[in-house]
Design brief:
Oligomer: single chain
Protein name: Tetratricopeptide repeat-containing protein
InterPro entries: TPR-like_helical_dom_sf, TPR_rpt
Strand content: under 5%
Number of strands: 2
């Protein structure tokens, strides 16, 4: 099944890029008018805002690293070391390893203080590490501009583009500024059609705002990134962004192809391994996904010890261990999952604390799966009085789940309303533009479970549950996809315990459509078959569940079987 998500609407709103994919000439980008930034957009790869990092850490010297990917980007510098550190910075920038990107660009400047492109790189990295008004990013751009006499004509284009993009960034809703930035890209590509980095920026510009960095890559951007691979074969960033584009179309096999390429080309870049894991997980290769995420985790921990700096300064670490914990949960390895969830829960978030909730959700979710309800209660209570609305929303959500376990429907309904009230407090303005979309599924899931816990679920109730199931299945990002799996599992399990056998069959099928390889899918298919008196199918499905959970904790299998 192929779903075209929001960004694919740009296909109708942009006249598009025309490429030389055979023997025809290349035509640079032609953008139509920008469209408004959606207030319900959901982050693709975790909560990515980071910042608040001490300057002394960002200025630490670094050494040249190997196996992080080759990023050919000629500059005017006469220093081979400056060039090498600059390209290392670009590898980290495209791999979302922001602290290392900044440190590498600083190191390039130590070898050549006149290297304007290193300041451009710093400006691009700082955009992802701070919020409006982007003071550090603009200052770095100004320093690049001050060195323009040392820059080539191509580098001057990049400097000019930096200011055009910053103008669009300083007001995310300024569609005129976004249009101007896209037109500057078009002009730059006319002048330098063989510049791979300009094409990458153009692919990013197909996203919904000037903040695009490849995570929101749309179907419209695919040909652009393929063009990059023609200019610079095996360019890691092109493969990276193609993964995101195909994930957005739920074409996980093609995403897997580019994930393997990205990991192969950048075997020591944590995010490259993590991206490969995304689609290994979604295509039933969970053992391999875990291996990739564990390798990424080991590289990161080694880096934090040698640098040294706190893991919380690297947004990617929290995201990687969260997805690794979910993958362990998939296999019933709850002890390993819980260790990572507790680490995440204890981590700080050095930027806008509105996104701190991302660190807090994994632990109570795992405790709930294990039936350790008394341990969840104090966590829920502490979240309810937290400073940010997203944390408070989670608190009411988990309290509602506990109340459902006690069959206290009226109390659960009150918790649901309280969660919805916190959701309403999250304003659709930058920098929390995407936050509402990210946390919105939690109260909706609670509402669906409340419907299922009624003695009888009427047509309106079933329609609400089905709407949630569809929304859950539309999650293509890694966290959303696997969290949806466990939510669909809970719905199917609850339905099997209710009187509506027709909906129970339907709910189990929705789970199977989402992931037919999941052991929990086989387990519930066995329960459904047993309910229908089909002993043979029940035994077959149970055997598949046992096999799938062969690495599960003993306590888990004893409780399940």
């Amino acid at each position: 099944m192929t779903r075209l998500y929001f960004h694919s609407l740009l296909l109708a709103l942009l006249t598009g890029f025309l490429f030389k994919l055979g023997g025809r000439s290349v035509e640079p980008a032609v953008f139509e008018k920008a469209v408004p930034y959606p207030d319900t957009a959901i982050p693709i790869c975790g909560a990515t805002q980071t910042g608040g990092i001490p300057q002394n850490i960002l200025n630490q010297p670094v050494t040249l690293r190997t196996n992080i990917g080759a990023y050919p980007f000629p500059t005017s510098t006469r220093s081979p070391k400056a060039q090498a550190f600059f390209e290392q910075g670009m590898a980290h920038l495209h791999g979302y390893q922001l602290v290392e990107a900044v440190r590498s660009f600083h190191e390039a400047l130590r070898h050549d203080s006149t290297m304007a492109m290193a300041y451009v790189g710093l400006s691009r990295a700082y955009v992802q590490m701070e919020f409006q008004p982007y003071a550090a990013a603009r200052n770095a751009a100004e320093q690049a501009k001050a060195l323009v006499t040392y820059a080539s004509e191509r580098e001057k284009e990049h400097i000019d583009l930096r200011f055009a993009q910053l103008k669009a960034l300083e007001s995310v809703g300024d569609l005129k500024a976004l249009d101007e930035y896209r037109q500057r890209l078009k002009t730059a590509l006319k002048h330098f059609p063989a510049d791979a980095e300009l094409w990458l920026l153009s692919g990013n510009a197909y996203e919904e705002s000037a903040l695009g960095r490849g995570q929101g890559s749309s179907p419209a951007s695919i040909a652009i990134y393929e063009k990059v691979l023609q200019i610079a074969p095996d360019h890691p960033a092109a493969h990276h962004y193609l993964i995101h584009a195909y994930e957005g179309m739920t074409d996980y096999e093609k995403a897997l192809y580019h994930g393997e390429a990205y990991a192969r080309l950048s075997p020591r870049l944590p995010h490259a391994l993590h991206m490969y894991a995304h689609d290994l997980m979604k295509t039933g290769k969970v053992d391999e996904a875990i291996a990739q995420m564990k390798a990424a985790d080991a590289i990161e921990r080694e880096l934090y010890e040698s640098a040294p700096y706190k893991a919380e300064y690297d947004w990617h670490h929290g995201h990687n261990i969260a997805l690794l914990a979910l993958s362990y949960q998939y296999q019933g390895r709850l002890k390993e999952a819980e260790a990572l969830a507790r680490e995440s829960y204890a981590m700080g978030y050095p930027t806008d604390t509105n996104f701190l909730y991302y660190r807090k959700k994994s632990l109570p979710e795992l405790l709930f799966v294990q039936g350790r309800y008394q341990e969840i209660l104090p966590i829920a209570q502490s979240l309810i009085i937290a400073k940010t609305p997203a944390e408070r929303l989670l608190g009411h959500y988990f309290l509602g789940l506990l109340q459902l376990q006690q069959q206290n429907l009226s109390a659960a309904q009150k918790s649901h309303k309280a969660a919805e009230a916190q959701l309403a407090l999250i304003k659709p303005v930058y920098p929390t533009t995407r936050l509402a979309g990210f946390v919105k599924p939690y109260p909706k899931f609670l509402a669906a479970l409340i419907r299922l816990h009624h003695t009888t679920t009427d047509a309106a109730g079933l329609a609400e549950i089905r709407a949630f199931q569809k929304a859950a299945r539309d999650q293509y990002g890694p966290d959303g996809w696997i969290e949806a799996l466990f939510q669909l599992e809970m719905i199917a399990d609850a339905a099997l315990k209710g009187p509506n056998t027709g909906f129970a069959k339907e709910a189990v099928q929705v789970l199977a459509d989402h992931d037919p390889a999941y052991p929990g899918t086989h387990y519930l298919q066995a329960k459904l078959a047993q309910l229908n008196g089909d002993r043979k199918t029940a035994d077959q499905q149970r055997e598949l569940a046992v096999k799938g959970w062969s690495k599960a904790d003993k306590e888990f299998t004893q409780r399940i079987f």
